[in-house]
Structure formats: structure tokens, C-alpha cells
Inverse folding.
């Protein structure tokens, strides 16, 4: 297993380099202008000067190599310096990846946005797991019962109804008519008292609910299918005939085996938390990483788009490896060599 | 196990229920709360920021900053606050609360001094007799927010900062030869050639004054390391930036060294600009839910915006500058050949549109502009027949276009010989069927207007094939995309353009022959319809030499307008306004300012 992990990690590095090259090439080929939102009456010479100063006109290989150096050397050094309060090399004037729209270091903006994405999407992810697994297990255990049918119905609605519909509906009902929750997310809210905690829960409630509905749907169906597979296995019959209670059979034997593929699925979905739910973030004005990506694309802010997409690619590669390893650990039948 | 599954479910539900108990909502960390019915009330207008924003400066009433928090929604969130690096109006607005220019425009388009003591004129010696230079005098005793004095040297520095080619400054100083500080309070701008309109530079929120001490290392290549300066510039305005998160939120607190503190201005102790969402969502926040005090740039269809205003929490204001949504008719041939849409000295004319004013006038007559406004713009637009729509040079000569006349259009087309000879319902001009590519940007209002126009033209036997392009590509100034408006690889385009200032000279210049964009000059130029007219060129040259108080000036502007609109290169459609919403209890705003920052008089705003 250790050999397998090391081999995968070594493979990951050229994978990431190739991914960054492809992302760069696509963005370079795609037309886009960082000055497109400036007034039309701005002379072409001024626009050209702005693009020149941003490095827009540099040849694509130069831009990529510069970015590689900044991303793999300078940015990690900066992160180490800020965590451990050290000063490695030229820490004062170290070059960083600069966003074209805000002229600020891209990585700083990403870390600024991380909390709201993690809060909302993390909460909905965890809540989704907590609801989906029990619901899936019970649905499978009591197959075709009223609970199962209602569960199927609700999850089908949750999965099919688009978030831009359920989101706006939630705002209309809970913000406009009832006034219970705010319709936007205040990212500067600092939780340091009961009131602010309550305010934070209130501003999270609707987006988390909308996303949980969506997450629960897929996961509960998957869990249900997995449990159904296992309920008919011989070892379950053996356990029952040994005299074990139903609770024991389901929780100790069936659930553990059914959850193996479910855990794998969950591990693969974790990078999705960071990418953010773009539509939900837009509707509830959460200003997380998904919204950042969309704005950056619209403004042709190439360094920001590159840094973000590379970050997502990195997370996907890492969690892919994690999912495979977890699978190997949980299921002793799996052997990697 | 079953039990704990149920328990965890119940726990989650309990959390939910606990959150929706009380029926009041704390939308901010400060005291302004909204009640369950959605009506905005402010319980307690005392200053609530952590450090106590009610200032005790001066011997005055001490009211400055006592008004609490003001919440503004700019759905395009500001990226940074330095106007010279802005990527759009959103950044200019964020900076305008902090930075100020020498003079600004009021809602009527009149110049008023801001940091300057008075407006320079020829009488007071501010403007040279031959228009070759202008001298501004700063007010006495002006302080930056850090307490240091403002001097003419800061104005000189702002020019140096922007004209350094590596800065990537978005303001245009091309006509400025030099900026020199005569003494601490006087600064002289000398032009490369005489400028009868000398009020372009350091006027409006596009050209603020920066502090040399703060930005000294930020000119040129050093600009990349200046995030702190760009996010929190030191200024003379009523507020200072406390936190700026790009495209997310900007928070301000009162500037203790602001010159209006002694008079109790500004009223609000802190400002928060919330970004994110879209125009409809922020309109809903202010008008229906009452979560905020101001929402900017409400490009929302009237059928959605009007009921929101009807909820009674706020009011929608519209202000007109010079933005006109119009149609461009390509005077060159966009056929896919070697010189596609190139003017080529006049050797590539459009087979139908070139020198065919009557045909295009017929197309204009068929359009029902009232309906375009009713469907797309509501109070935020009004029909127009002029490409220059603003005071004081508003032409009335083209107003016949305001009335839709389908029969007249059909008759006119018959008269000029554009008849349907093969009976397929489409007219022909010299054998060419009147079927055109009609392009605009992807936008709900534009698409609905496109649809209506195509329908009107259908009734006169002209076919318009509608297309829409992503706005980022449509307005792509690098012209890497074939969809860009400057390339004009289509027959008809629709978009909005407008002058950045009330002076027509700098705007009408874009339609002279030397401004035609084509492949040989990298599509640099504002004459997008490729209109080439010696008469227009001569008239504009005449205008550029006339002084501002020449009584004949307006007449020349009107003539220029009539010339290009009458030629068939442009059909104006809608005179568009800036539309914003204010909560009912915000007072002192006056008219909305479309010529400068909408926050231009924020020191006068109060909550009543």
C-alpha cells in the first residue's frame, strides 16, 4: 500500500504540470479583454497600454513559465512565511500572482473567500451526509414502504428542481413575505456573541437548506442502492440465524459494508465544496469561490482564473488519491500493488 | 442505532426551528434591524461601530457621524478603490467616497468646484487666452485623512503616476503636455494644443487627486506591490476605507479630517458597500425587503421593477446623461472576403446601406420606440432620435422618428425602388434581398428589443437575422474575437454608447473619418459604422476651434448630430438613464447624478 501511495503521489506531479499547461493554453486561446468593462470612449491606445502593463500581450509560454515559478515556488513560500512567521529569502518584495481586476495577490483573495464557501457548502455537505445516510438506510431496509416512497419522491424533487428556482422561492417566502432571514450573506460578520451567532445561522439557513436538499438527494439514493445490495447477502442471513437483533444486523454488519462505496463517493465530492455552488452563491450573494471564478472569467482576469482552476485541479487529484486509499483501507479485499 | 439516526435528524431540525423563532432579523452587525413585515425601521440611530464613529471633532454640533451605518448595494462589487486602475464604474464609485478631484459635475451637468477654490475662467485668469493652459487653485487648509496638507504637488504626482506607461492607468492624459505646481496651492496644466474645453483632467471621479506620500513607490512597475494603497487610498473625502474585499464588500468609516466635520457632515458614521448578485436581487433587497438604503445600476425590466417600487419601502430614481442605445449600420461590406468590413479608403462600400439614407430612414420609421422603452426600460429610458441627446444642444430636427409609421415606411421603400420583385415577402434593393445580420450583446432587455425590431421590420418586408454575443466578447477591445463591435463583422449592431462628460466635442469626434477602425490600424478608432463624410469632418474641425461661450457652438453640435443621424449610419433608439433605488427614509440626495459619482453629495445625505 505504501508503495502504491508513493507511486500515485509521484504521478500526481507531472499530472498537475500538464493540467496547468492545458488550462493556460485554453485561456490563452480564448478571446477576452480585461478592459471590456471600461467606457467605450476610452481610446484604443490607453486600452493597449493597460493590457501591456498587465502582461496580457506576453507570449503564452513566457506567461506560463512565470506563473509556474510564482505558483510552485513563490506562493508556497509566502504561505509558509505567513503561517510560521518566518522570512525565507526575499520575503519583502517577493513577486506574487497578481489578479488583473483588483491588482491584488490572487491567492490572498482566494483565502479571503474561503471561509464563506467552506461555511455554507461545508455545512450543507455535512448536513446532507447526516440526513442522507440514515434516510438511505431506512429506505432500503423498509423497501417500498410509505417512508421509502415519500423519500423517493422528495429526493426526486430535490434533485430535479434547479437551485436557481428553489433559491429564489426561498427568498420570496422567507425574506420578502415572512422576513425571517436576510436575502444576502454578510461576509464581515464576526461571531463573538450569541446575537452574532444567531445572525450567522440566519444568513446561512436558506443557502444551506437549498444545497442540502440537492446533496441529500443523490447521496441517499446511492446509499439506498448500496444497502439493498448488501441486505440480500448470505452473511446477513447468517447473522440473523445466529440470533442477532435486527438493529445489530443493520448497524454492525450491513451498514459498514454498504458505506464503503458511499465513503468513496463522499471523498470524491469534497473538491466540489471548494468549487462552490456557483448558482447558489450568485442567488444568495455569498461571494465565495464559485462567484469569484465566474466574475474573473467575465472580466478576462486570466491569472485569477488560472490560479483558481489549478487549485480545484489540485484538490481533485488529492482527493482522488484519498478516495482510493480510503477504499483500500476500509475494504480488506482490495489490494493495491 | 436507529435511535441516534433519528436523534441527529431531530437535532438538525431543532437547529432550523430555533433559527426562525423571533421574527426580527439582524442583517448587519450594527443596530439597524428590519421587522417581519419588511418595512425598514431603524431602531436607534446612534453610532454603533466598534470604535464609536460619532466624532467629537470641532466645536460644531458634533453631529458628524451620528447617523449610524449606511448600506449600499453595488451588485457589481468593487475590485479596488484606486480610480486610475479601475476596471469599471464600480471601482470609481468605491473610490469616490474617499478620493476627490479638483471639480465635479452636479446632476444638471454643471461643473462645480470640489478641491478647487473656484472654477478657472478666462476672466479670472485661470484659463489662458489662447486655451493653451489652465491653472487651478486649491482651497486653503485642505487636509488628507492622515492629517497632512494637500498641496499642488499631489496634483503633479497624480499626473506623473498616470502617465507612467507601466502603471496601466485607465485615465487619458494624451492632450496634456505638462502639469506644474506654481506654488503650494496653484497648479498649471499645459496642453499639447489649444483646448477650448479644458475641463477634462482632474475633473469627475475618473481623475481624483492621489497623495504623493502614499503612492510614491506605486507608479510604473511598482504598482503590483501596492495592494494596500489601492484598497485604502488616503483621500480628502468624507470617508476612509477600513476593509476592502474585492467584489465582495467595502467598509468605510468617517474621515476625522474631512473639511465638513465642523458643520456636522457627513451624517452617516460608516458606509458598507455590499457586492454580489444581480440587479434584480439588490432591487429586491432595498425595495421589497428593506435590508439596505441604496441599490445602484438597476438594469431591471419595468414589469419587475415597478411592482417592487410599489411595495412602498423605497423610491427609484433615474438620471439622464448622454447614453443612447442605438443601431449602427455598417457602411462597409461585411462579406467574408479579404477586406471584410474595411473602409479601404471607400473602396468597400456596403451594397445596401452605403449612401442610402432613405432606405435606413424607412427602417427607422418602422420602429415603435415607445414600445421598446415600455418593454425594456420603463422610467430608465425615453425614446430619442438624436445621438447627442443632452442639453444644451438637443436637436429637434429628427423628431419625426418618434412616431411609428409602418405605412409611411412601406410607401417610402416602394418610392425608392426597394420592392419585392420575386414575391417571397422580402424586398430587394438592386437585386439584393433585404436580409441582414443583426447583432447585439447577450442581455434580456436587448434580446426583447431585438425581437420587437425584427418584428417591425418584418412588417415592411425586411428580414433581420438576430444574433447575440457574450458581452465580454462583444466589447473585447483586443479584437481577438470576431464578435467585437470594432470589427463589425455584421450588417447591423445595437449597443449603448455615451459621452463621459457633458461636452459634446470629445464625443462627436469619434465619427470623423480618421477614427474609422479597420484591419490596417488594429481596429483602433471609435467610428464603428465606418461613416466617412468630408462635411462632418469639416464641421467637427470647426467645433474644436470654437470657445465654450461662442453662441454658435450649440448650433454646430446640432448640425453634427443631424448629419450623422440623417446619413443612415446610425439610428438612435432609446435615451437611457442611470437607475438607482433609495430607501424612503434617506434624505438630502436631491437628483440622481448621471454625470459623476452617484455618491457625489453623500455628505449631505441624512436619515429622516
Amino acid at each position: 500500500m505504501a508503495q502504491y501511495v508513493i507511486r500515485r503521489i509521484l504521478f500526481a506531479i507531472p499530472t498537475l504540470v500538464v493540467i496547468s499547461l492545458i488550462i493556460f493554453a485554453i485561456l490563452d486561446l480564448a478571446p477576452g479583454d480585461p478592459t471590456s468593462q471600461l467606457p467605450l470612449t476610452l481610446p484604443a491606445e490607453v486600452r493597449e497600454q493597460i493590457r501591456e502593463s498587465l502582461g496580457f500581450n506576453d507570449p503564452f509560454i513566457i506567461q506560463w513559465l512565470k506563473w509556474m515559478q510564482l505558483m510552485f515556488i513563490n506562493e508556497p513560500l509566502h504561505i509558509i512565511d505567513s503561517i510560521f512567521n518566518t522570512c525565507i529569502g526575499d520575503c519583502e518584495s517577493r513577486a506574487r500572482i497578481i489578479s488583473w481586476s483588483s491588482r491584488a495577490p490572487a491567492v490572498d483573495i482566494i483565502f479571503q473567500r474561503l471561509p464563506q464557501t467552506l461555511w455554507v457548502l461545508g455545512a450543507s455537505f455535512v448536513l446532507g451526509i447526516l440526513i442522507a445516510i440514515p434516510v438511505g438506510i431506512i429506505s432500503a431496509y423498509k423497501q417500498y414502504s410509505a417512508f421509502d416512497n415519500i423519500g423517493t419522491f422528495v429526493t426526486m424533487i430535490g434533485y430535479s428542481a434547479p437551485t436557481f428556482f428553489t433559491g429564489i422561492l426561498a427568498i420570496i417566502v422567507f425574506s420578502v413575505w415572512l422576513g425571517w432571514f436576510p436575502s444576502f450573506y454578510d461576509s464581515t460578520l464576526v461571531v463573538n456573541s450569541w446575537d452574532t451567532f444567531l445572525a450567522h445561522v440566519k444568513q446561512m439557513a436558506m443557502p444551506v437548506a437549498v444545497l442540502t436538499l440537492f446533496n441529500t438527494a443523490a447521496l441517499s439514493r446511492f446509499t439506498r442502492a448500496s444497502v439493498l445490495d448488501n441486505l440480500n447477502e448470505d452473511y446477513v442471513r447468517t447473522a440473523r440465524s445466529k440470533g442477532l437483533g435486527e438493529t445489530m444486523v443493520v448497524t454492525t454488519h450491513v451498514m459498514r459494508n454498504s458505506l464503503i462505496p458511499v465513503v468513496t463517493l463522499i471523498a470524491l465530492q469534497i473538491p466540489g465544496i471548494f468549487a462552490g455552488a456557483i448558482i447558489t452563491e450568485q442567488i444568495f450573494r455569498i461571494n465565495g469561490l464559485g462567484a469569484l471564478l465566474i466574475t474573473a472569467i467575465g472580466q478576462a482576469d486570466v491569472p485569477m482564473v488560472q490560479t483558481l482552476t489549478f487549485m480545484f485541479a489540485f484538490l481533485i487529484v488529492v482527493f482522488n488519491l484519498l478516495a482510493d486509499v480510503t477504499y483500500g483501507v476500509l475494504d480488506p479485499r482490495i489490494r493495491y500493488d | 442505532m436507529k435511535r441516534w439516526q433519528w436523534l441527529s435528524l431531530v437535532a438538525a431540525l431543532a437547529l432550523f426551528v430555533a433559527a426562525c423563532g423571533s421574527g426580527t432579523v439582524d442583517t448587519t452587525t450594527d443596530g439597524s434591524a428590519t421587522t417581519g413585515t419588511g418595512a425598514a425601521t431603524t431602531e436607534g440611530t446612534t453610532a454603533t461601530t466598534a470604535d464609536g464613529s460619532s466624532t467629537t471633532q470641532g466645536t460644531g454640533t458634533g453631529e458628524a457621524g451620528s447617523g449610524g451605518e449606511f448600506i449600499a448595494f453595488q451588485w457589481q462589487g468593487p475590485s479596488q478603490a484606486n480610480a486610475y486602475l479601475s476596471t469599471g464604474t464600480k471601482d470609481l464609485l468605491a473610490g469616490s467616497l474617499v478620493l476627490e478631484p479638483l471639480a465635479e459635475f452636479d446632476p444638471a451637468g454643471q461643473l462645480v468646484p470640489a478641491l478647487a477654490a473656484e472654477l478657472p475662467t478666462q476672466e479670472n485668469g485661470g484659463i489662458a487666452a489662447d486655451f493653451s493652459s489652465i491653472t487651478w487653485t486649491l482651497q486653503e487648509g485642505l487636509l488628507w485623512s492622515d492629517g497632512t496638507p494637500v498641496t499642488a504637488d499631489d496634483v503633479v504626482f497624480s499626473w506623473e503616476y498616470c502617465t507612467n506607461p507601466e502603471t496601466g492607468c485607465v485615465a487619458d492624459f494624451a492632450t496634456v503636455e505638462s502639469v506644474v505646481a506654481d506654488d503650494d496651492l496653484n497648479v498649471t496644466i499645459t496642453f499639447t494644443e489649444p483646448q477650448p474645453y479644458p475641463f477634462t483632467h482632474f475633473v469627475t471621479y475618473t481623475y481624483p487627486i492621489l497623495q504623493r506620500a502614499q503612492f510614491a513607490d506605486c507608479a510604473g512597475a511598482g504598482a503590483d506591490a501596492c495592494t494596500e494603497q489601492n484598497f485604502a487610498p488616503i483621500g480628502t473625502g468624507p470617508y476612509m476605507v477600513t476593509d476592502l474585499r474585492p467584489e465582495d464588500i467595502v467598509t468605510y468609516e468617517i474621515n476625522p479630517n474631512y473639511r465638513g466635520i465642523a458643520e456636522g457632515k457627513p451624517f452617516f458614521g460608516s458606509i458598507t458597500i455590499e457586492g454580489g448578485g444581480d440587479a434584480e436581487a439588490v432591487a429586491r433587497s432595498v425595495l421589497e425587503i428593506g435590508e439596505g438604503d441604496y441599490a445602484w445600476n438597476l438594469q431591471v425590466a419595468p414589469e419587475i421593477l415597478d411592482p417592487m417600487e410599489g411595495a412602498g419601502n423605497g423610491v427609484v430614481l433615474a438620471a439622464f446623461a448622454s447614453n443612447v442605445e442605438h443601431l449602427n449600420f455598417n457602411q462597409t461590406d461585411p462579406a467574408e472576403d479579404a477586406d471584410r468590413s474595411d473602409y479601404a479608403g471607400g473602396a468597400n462600400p456596403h451594397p445596401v446601406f452605403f449612401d442610402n439614407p432613405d432606405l435606413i430612414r424607412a427602417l427607422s420609421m418602422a420602429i415603435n420606440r415607445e414600445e421598446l422603452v415600455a418593454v425594456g426600460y420603463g422610467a430608465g429610458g425615453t425614446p430619442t432620435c438624436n445621438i447627442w441627446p443632452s442639453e444644451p444642444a438637443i436637436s429637434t430636427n429628427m423628431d419625426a422618428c418618434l412616431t411609428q409609421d409602418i405605412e409611411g415606411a412601406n410607401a417610402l421603400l416602394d418610392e425608392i425602388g426597394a420592392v419585392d420583385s420575386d414575391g417571397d415577402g422580402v424586398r430587394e434593393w438592386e437585386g439584393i434581398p433585404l436580409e441582414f445580420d443583426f447583432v447585439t450583446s447577450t442581455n434580456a432587455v436587448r434580446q426583447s428589443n431585438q425581437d420587437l425590431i425584427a418584428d417591425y421590420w418584418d412588417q415592411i418586408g425586411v428580414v433581420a437575422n438576430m444574433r447575440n454575443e457574450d458581452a465580454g466578447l462583444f466589447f473585447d477591445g483586443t479584437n481577438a474575437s470576431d464578435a467585437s463591435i470594432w470589427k463589425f463583422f455584421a450588417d447591423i449592431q445595437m449597443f449603448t454608447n455615451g459621452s463621459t462628460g457633458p461636452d459634446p466635442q470629445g464625443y462627436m469626434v469619434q465619427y470623423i473619418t480618421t477614427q474609422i477602425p479597420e484591419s490596417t490600424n488594429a481596429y483602433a478608432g471609435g467610428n464603428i459604422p465606418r461613416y466617412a463624410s468630408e462635411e462632418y469632418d469639416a464641421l467637427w474641425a470647426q467645433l474644436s476651434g470654437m470657445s465654450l461661450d461662442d453662441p454658435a457652438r450649440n448650433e454646430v453640435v446640432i448640425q453634427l448630430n443631424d448629419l450623422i443621424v440623417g446619413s443612415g449610419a446610425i439610428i438612435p433608439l432609446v435615451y437611457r438613464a442611470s437607475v438607482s433605488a433609495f430607501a424612503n427614509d434617506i434624505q438630502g440626495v436631491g437628483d440622481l447624478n448621471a454625470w459623476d459619482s452617484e455618491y457625489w453629495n453623500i455628505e449631505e445625505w441624512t436619515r429622516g
Remarks:
- The longest strand of chain B covers residues 314-329.
- The domain at 321-577 of chain B is CATH 3.10.105.10 (Dipeptide-binding Protein; domain 3).
